[in-house]
Amino acid sequence: MTIDRVTSPRYSPPASIGAEPRRATRSTSDSLVGGVAAGLATHLGLPVRWVRLGFVASGVFGALGLVLYAALWIVLPAEDQFAVSTPGAESAQRQGRVGTQERAGISETGFVVAFASIVIGLALLIGVMTGTSASMWPIALLTLAAGIVWRQADQAQRERWLDTTGGVGPVKALVGSGGWASYARLLMGLSLLVVAIVMYAAGGAQLSLAREVAVATVLAVLGVGLMLGPWLIRLSSDLTAERAERIRVQERADVAAHLHDSVLQTLALIQRSADDPTSVARLARSQERDLRTWLYAGLPADKSDLASALHDVVASVEDDFDIAVELVVVGAPAFSDALVAATREALINAAKHSGAPSVDVYAEANDEGTAVFVRDRGRGFDQDAVAADRRGVSHSIIDRMARHGGRAEVISSDAGTEVRLYLPKEDS
Amino acid sequence: MTSVVIVDDHAMFRTGVRAELGDQVELVGEADDVDSAVAAIVAHQPDVVLLDVHLPGGGGVEVMRRTAATAPKTQFLALSVSDAAEDVIGTIRGGARGYVTKTITGPELINAIARVASGDAVFSPRLAGFVLDAFAGTVDVAAVDEDLDRLSQREREVMRLIARGYSYREVAGELFISVKTVETHMSAVLRKLQLSSRHELTRWASDRRLL
Description:
The structure holds 2 protein chains of 2 kinds.
Chain A: H1 36-44, H2 48-60, H3 64-75, H4 87-94, H5 108-130, H6 136-162, H7 170-175, H8 180-203, H9 207-272, H10 277-296, H11 306-320, E1 324-330, H12 337-354, E2 358-365, E3 369-376, H13 392-403, E4 407-413, E5 416-424
Parallel strand pairs in A: 1-2
Antiparallel strand pairs in A: 2-3, 3-5, 4-5
Helix pairs in contact in A: 1-2, 2-3, 4-9, 5-6, 6-8, 8-9, 9-10, 11-12, 12-13
Chain B: E1 3-7, H1 11-21, E2 26-31, H2 34-44, E3 48-51, H3 60-67, E4 75-80, H4 85-93, E5 98-101, H5 106-117, E6 122-123, H6 125-134, H7 153-163, H8 168-175, H9 179-195, H10 199-207
């Protein structure tokens, strides 16, 4: 054996030596049947083809390979239980903002072909060795049935790890998130099982016996179901409890992820621009706003109400200019493009020209309609003295409000400026 | 000079406030949880307590409840990063004479302390907005004097101007009334906010998680 384990492409060294024991897993990304061979190859540092060949060979000459494979399939945990990506990515996946990673190589046909060839080969071998062909088909069907049900339960388990909603019923434990394919596979497996038993019985006896055997088989299956029922239910309640714990852990991880994505990044930026008080203040303000929105989650996401639209305007002005804006909204004023645009213009004017460190914005819905007030304590300006080509105030604010059936007043003195916007209620 | 106790569980924030207040007020004590706050307030009997809303051991409301009998002359000014309606309204109803956010500037804070010390109310624009929302509804003029569940027209106007960022002096100028009258209106609103028994008020505060 001259394989260099470290440079083997399938071998990934443990991230921190001594921290966690290495353990073999079933591969979920590179599997023909159950991913046992690929997982084992990774663990042992062997080429995956050798391992597969080894299983097939030992499976053909005596059933050791098959038994071993089946045992490992049961014992080895699937590798994606241990897959760890960044907290941010995991959080985003859980919240559905990013799709889960596609699993390559789980092809149903590949699995069926591989399994069927193993089964048929095994059946032929038994037929040749025993010299009879009568027992061949029942055994083949039996093995195939077991394989299909087994595979199905495995798939269900994989989905269960990904699913975080609802409890796990005994049925769900077997068929996963459903879909006709899951039930069809299960049904197919079970009926193959029955057919196999019936065929075996019919092989050497009359048809009436076969019918009796069929009835007996169904009864036996029912009996086993009754015996296993309580156990399955207990198992499902255990799984539900475990899931609740996992959800708690994930919520904690979501908080960590948010802090990581927002607060830590901003703190890093602040440290790097520590000699620039303006951008430090801007970063801190923007982060505070973000964190408040996240903590109190008070803003509806839709743009149909004025409060959230004004919130967005305030956010963008605070980001673009060195000014703090205090926004107070009373009642639930209706959305209006004109009001939002005029408010933005008034805020930008205050930010650019007033020299004041902060602006107050107040919006309210009353019986007459909606009123918005933008007030700063800056140096003020003389409207008549503004050059004719600088038409910001008259064009963007006063004319705009007039066009939409409202009105605007600009009151300015050396104690500051207040822009008052009124929009009457629409008759509807 | 006004004697002040600072109650906040963040030592860094206490240091910052201490530096901003300078020698404008007489700082007699500090505390970082409910028990030490109660002890400091009872021992020093300060004029004003700067009180954080969220404290280990029960919060600012608990401090006010436990010192109501032992330090009757002490006034409370809530100082918090939280804008949540239930925090703001809850603290005011717990007995605070005012509510300001921690982003307040030094001179404004000194001004607010002086106001609270003289028995007036201090409303931030956001608190005024909450009040207007909480007391939304038409005013029955005949019942104004008695009804704690409503604001008079004048009180509403004062609240609106405060919410627009006006100072007391500016409110007085705008409404052609004296600063003293503005203060009277503010105190009346504060009293209604604290004493009003209507269920909507508390439910409103917990239902609506405004900005």
